[in-house]
């Protein structure tokens, strides 16, 4: 057992080395609140992490009716008992004194407390008024990647078949929509082909734009343990920052932003040129190889080197590494998904695996990763713009099947055009066609690009905004109605991680005050709206999490994400099962596509695909002619220059990203004292070369200005590639006294003051990593370092990262904490 006494300074804990093809040893991580002895814990309640996409299984410690700690579940296949810093400490936010405990409504320009009936009657009355006057297209729903499966499914039913609106999407659009789209483009359907277990068997692991050490820290622990064991894997890291992955990599490529397609085409070129391909696999399971080979024929490493600004010799080394692997695992995340040509680049990683035959066996795995804990549920339940159960909105038989499940006429389900993606929803709200926007579990006033525009949209008098959340976030402060929600540990539900592992999270404690589970809020709304099926019965027939789960099982039956073999009882006993789980696969399915590409057939596929350059949807006739037998599709893509390039006025590329200590907009992690103090304020990373050229030094207060806005933060000089700035996107305004954000023309704190309103044509994912900026000095520092952690990718260029001190704790920056309105430790002492 490893106590969490020093897991800020040593975020990945100690090592338990193991060899290739061996079982990852268990290590139970535990943290109890100060003063709580182990024998004071009255019960341990089963759950899993809600602060990243790993799905780390844990138990919640309860004493005197309150949470007092957590421990990892050593029987679980995902984490074998380990927990990351956010897992260990983030739960303390639940007891923050500034939790929302009663509904709020706007009266005279101010939010004032009210009762639930008043708030929900107001929401229902506005809904009925808009339906009568403007129709279902006047109402939109924008949800999260942090709710439970049962809540997403209920929301999808009431939005699609109750309201009848095409405007339903999740903030998964910001982090995982490219993963879904890339899988649909290649395999005809969403669903992760690989498994975390593949890390145990691979001899090469390639991480494309994926800082796994900070985004999925427990899986990084797994890789660290393998690196110290027998027959360790070799790592390929593609990342412009000097991440922990880069420091352990056999080959590290740091390309210019927006050039991923050029780099990947060069890797494909070298793989084909050296005949490192599995021609039998290609012939049996793919279409499009000839076109792909032709497209990359001229994409030499030297050609890519000029575009990507990396040495051709290093590209050749990377190509040899992935091309000669016996068992290759590739992971992809935001460095690809939030950059130029996002879907096109992610698809080329799929292509690399297909032409090498690296699919469907231990160690030959593909992980188009997620960024949020329940993003997979958002996608499979249809709360992300798609239809539930990975059904195809262009396939009338799929729509009819869904209509049968819901007992409504097919015409009731919007499918006359592509579902509305989040960025388009906000455009409709800006134009005035969407007049009511219900935002649940997300904070777009900090997380969307070009925040000055977002604030102007959300403050329109004609837009009626409902916000359902735990705290008075920057977005909630702009709402007309605020609904206090219960969160993880205060409600029961199912959550599915990035490798399709389904966990059950049990209610451990009561929510504060009058806060309610999101499911209860949605069910209340459905009752007040009196949604009916075609026979006049209630549209929503379930009443609690378990009955909602059974309703979802009926919807998932026979679909790729089949849950029919699961139950609450089974999940309680087993601690994590990968879907599909059916009568034929009662213990779940570790890997997809072990015997062909099952869901790519024209009659079965979730999507007929899109043009990777324009995003135009293909029709069934075109799909059927190209892929009549339902094989994996090798879709080629030409490199195109980014839409916004540095110039004399804005000479830097700007990218945003995460730190291990925070999640999204810090509504939870910023209220956990250990996490707050580990990374208390925003910072700006610049290369040592650029800092010297501009006469800037560590700790200087600088301004990052772009074409859309500006922010200020303390400078951290790192080993990031020259010409690039990095700003973490976690920091908003709730703890600064600035409410929902700065006034017009005033520099802010949030990274998204500067990012561009632009998105990938196929996945519609915003491109947070493609802006340009200027960097200027505001005032000299006083010699103190910036508030950036030194243990992670933000380590200073002088090599002082995690230097042990005389007391044994690694050195780290702990500047004065950001202003904080309430003591988060109150209630957990």
Automatic annotation (TrEMBL):
CDD domains named in the record: MopB_Nitrate-R-NapA-like (cd02754)
Species assigned in the record: Streptomyces vinaceusdrappus
Domain 4Fe-4S Mo/W bis-MGD-type: 42-98
Highest classification ranks of the organism: Bacteria, Bacillati, Actinomycetota, Actinomycetes, Kitasatosporales
Keyword Iron carried by entry: yes
Biased composition (Basic and acidic residues): 820-829
Keyword entries, A-Z: 4Fe-4S, Iron, Iron-sulfur, Metal-binding
This protein's name: Molybdopterin-dependent oxidoreductase
Family annotation (InterPro entries): Asp_de-COase-like_dom_sf, MoPterin_dinucl-bd_dom, Mopterin_OxRdtase, Mopterin_OxRdtase_4Fe-4S_dom, Mopterin_OxRdtase_prok_CS, Prok_molybdopt-oxidoreductase
Pfam families in alphabetical order: Molybdopterin, Molydop_binding
Annotated spans, Disordered: 738-761, 776-829
């Amino acid at each position: 057992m490893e106590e969490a006494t020093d897991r800020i300074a040593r975020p990945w804990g100690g090592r338990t080395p193991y060899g290739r093809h061996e079982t990852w040893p268990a290590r139970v991580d535990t943290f109890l609140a100060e003063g709580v002895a182990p024998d004071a814990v009255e019960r341990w309640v089963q759950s899993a992490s809600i602060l990243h996409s790993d799905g780390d299984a844990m138990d919640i410690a309860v004493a005197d009716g309150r949470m007092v700690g957590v421990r990892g579940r050593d029987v679980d296949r995902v984490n074998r008992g380990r927990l990351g810093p956010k897992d260990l400490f983030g739960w303390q936010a639940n007891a923050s004194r500034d939790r929302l405990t009663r509904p709020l409504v706007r009266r005279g320009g101010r939010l004032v407390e009210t009762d639930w009936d008043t708030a929900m009657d107001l929401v229902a009355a506005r809904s009925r008024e808009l339906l009568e006057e403007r129709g279902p297209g006047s109402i939109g729903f924008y949800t999260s990647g942090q709710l439970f499966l049962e809540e997403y499914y209920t929301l999808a039913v009431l939005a699609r078949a109750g309201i009848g609106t095409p405007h339903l999407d999740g903030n998964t659009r910001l982090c995982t929509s490219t993963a879904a789209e890339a899988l649909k483009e290649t395999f005809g359907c969403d669903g992760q082909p690989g498994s975390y277990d593949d890390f145990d068997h691979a001899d090469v692991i390639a991480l494309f734009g994926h800082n796994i050490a900070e985004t999925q820290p427990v899986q990084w622990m797994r890789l660290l343990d393998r690196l110290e064991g027998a027959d360790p894997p070799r790592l390929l890291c593609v990342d412009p920052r000097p991440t922990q992955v880069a420091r352990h990599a056999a080959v590290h490529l740091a390309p210019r932003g927006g050039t991923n397609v050029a780099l990947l085409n060069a890797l494909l070129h070298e793989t084909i040129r050296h005949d490192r391909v599995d021609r039998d696999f290609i012939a049996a399971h793919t279409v499009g190889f000839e076109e792909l080979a032709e497209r990359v024929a001229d994409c030499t490493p030297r050609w890519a080197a000029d575009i990507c600004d990396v040495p051709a010799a290093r590209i050749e080394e990377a190509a040899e590494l992935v091309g000669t692997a016996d068992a290759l695992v590739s992971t992809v995340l935001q460095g690809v998904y939030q950059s130029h040509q996002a879907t096109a680049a992610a698809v080329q990683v799929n292509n690399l695996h297909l032409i090498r035959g690296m699919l469907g066996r231990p160690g030959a795995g593909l992980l188009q990763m997620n960024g949020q804990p329940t993003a997979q549920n958002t996608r499979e339940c249809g709360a992300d713009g798609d239809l539930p159960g990975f059904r195809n909105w262009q396939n009338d038989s799929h729509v009819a099947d869904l209509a049968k499940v819901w007992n409504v006429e097919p015409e009731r389900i919007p499918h006359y055009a592509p579902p509305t993606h989040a960025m388009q929803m906000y455009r409709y709200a800006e134009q005035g066609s969407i007049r009511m926007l219900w935002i649940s579990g997300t904070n777009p006033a900090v997380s969307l690009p070009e925040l000055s525009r977002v604030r102007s949209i959300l403050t329109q008098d004609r837009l009626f905004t409902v916000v359902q959340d735990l705290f008075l976030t920057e977005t909630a402060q702009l709402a007309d109605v605020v609904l206090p929600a219960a969160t993880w540990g205060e409600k029961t539900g199912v959550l599915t991680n990035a490798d399709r592992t389904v966990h059950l999270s049990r209610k451990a404690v009561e929510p504060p005050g009058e806060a309610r589970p999101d499911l209860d809020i949605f069910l209340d709304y459905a009752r007040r709206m009196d949604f009916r099926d075609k026979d006049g019965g209630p549209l929503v027939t379930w009443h609690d999490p378990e009955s909602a789960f059974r309703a979802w099982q009926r919807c998932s039956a026979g679909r790729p994400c089949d849950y029919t073999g699961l139950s609450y009882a089974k999940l309680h006993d087993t601690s994590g099962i990968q879907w599909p789980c059916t009568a034929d696969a009662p213990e779940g399915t570790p890997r997809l596509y072990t015997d062909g590409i099952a869901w790519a057939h024209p009659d079965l596929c979730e999507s007929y695909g899109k043009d990777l350059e324009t995003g135009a949807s293909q029709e069934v006739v075109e799909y059927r002619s190209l892929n009549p037998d339902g094989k994996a599709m090798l879709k080629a893509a030409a490199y195109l220059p980014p839409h916004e390039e540095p110039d004399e006025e804005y000479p830097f590329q700007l990218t945003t990203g995460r730190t291990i200590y925070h999640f999204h907009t810090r509504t939870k992690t910023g209220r956990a004292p250990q996490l707050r103090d580990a990374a208390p304020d925003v910072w700006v990373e610049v290369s040592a070369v650029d800092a010297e050229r501009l006469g800037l030094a560590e700790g200087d207060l600088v301004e990052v200005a772009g074409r859309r806005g500006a922010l200020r933060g303390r400078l951290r000089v790192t080993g990031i590639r020259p010409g690039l700035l990095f700003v973490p996107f976690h920091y908003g305004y709730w703890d600064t006294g600035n409410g929902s954000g700065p006034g017009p023309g005033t520099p802010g704190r949030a990274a998204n003051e500067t990012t561009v309103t632009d998105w990938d044509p196929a996945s519609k994912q915003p491109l947070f990593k493609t802006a340009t900026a200027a960097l200027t000095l505001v005032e000299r520092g006083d010699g103190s370092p910036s508030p950036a952690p030194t243990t992670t990718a933000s380590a200073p260029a002088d090599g002082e990262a995690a230097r042990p001190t005389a007391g044994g704790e690694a050195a780290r920056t702990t500047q004065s904490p950001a202003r904080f309105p309430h003591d988060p430790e109150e209630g957990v002492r």
